[in-house]
Amino acid sequence: MSASDYHTTPNFPALYWPISVLPGEPQYLHTVQDAWRFTLFWTIIVFELCHLVASSYALALQWRNWKVMFGVVAVYGVLAGVEALMAGSVVGLLLGAVYKAGDFRMSTWIPFIWAVTNVLVLVLSSFSMQGGL
């Protein structure tokens, strides 16, 4: 019997307020596929938002070349999707494998937190520094 036989997958995003939780309110992920899917979706959302902010800032600075800059916004969006697909898949599969190996259930907050962590690593690695990533 697999985990999916007796557990239902929550609908995305299935986030709940973790303070003063009522019984039955928290929802958990039990399969590797669910962990991968939630992590991938959150990573795509967070990466797209981060790249949208960066490209909007570039657009605001270069408003005289607005025709060219809208192309930059589109390129940033495509790059964010590709980066999110790679990062979200790797992290999601690793998370799912670790939780399955330990026979743990995963809170629906974990994929969101790892998506934000992915973006923070991306931002940190964009800076040129001695001893950086």
Number of helices: 4
Shape: elongated
Average predicted local confidence, pLDDT:
83
Secondary structure: number of strands:
2
Oligomer: single chain
Strand-pairing-aware structural class:
mainly alpha
How much of the sequence lies in strands comes to: under 5%
- Low-pLDDT sequence parts: none
Q: Which sheet architecture does the biggest sheet show?
A: 2 strands, antiparallel
Radius of gyration: 18 Å
The N- and C-terminal alpha carbons lie at a distance of 43 Å
Helix content, binned percent: 55-70%
Strand order of the largest sheet: 1-2
Order of helices and strands, N to C?
Answer: HEHHEH
Task: Please explain how this structure is put together.
The protein is mainly alpha-helical. About 65% of the residues lie in helices and about 5% in strands. The chain contains four helices and two strands; from the N terminus they run αβααβα. It has helices at about 5, 30-60, 65-100, 110-125, and strands at about 30, 105. The protein has a two-stranded antiparallel sheet. Helix 3 (about 65-100) crosses helix 4. The longest helix has about 35 residues, at about 65-100. The chain is elongated and about 60 Å long. The model has no long low-confidence stretch (mean pLDDT about 85).
Itemize the secondary structure elements and their pairings.
Layout: H1 3-6, E1 28-29, H2 32-61, H3 66-101, E2 106-107, H4 109-125
Antiparallel strand pairs: 1-2
Helix pairs in contact: 2-3, 2-4, 3-4
Summarize the structure.
By secondary structure, the protein is mainly alpha-helical. It is 65% helix and 3% strand.
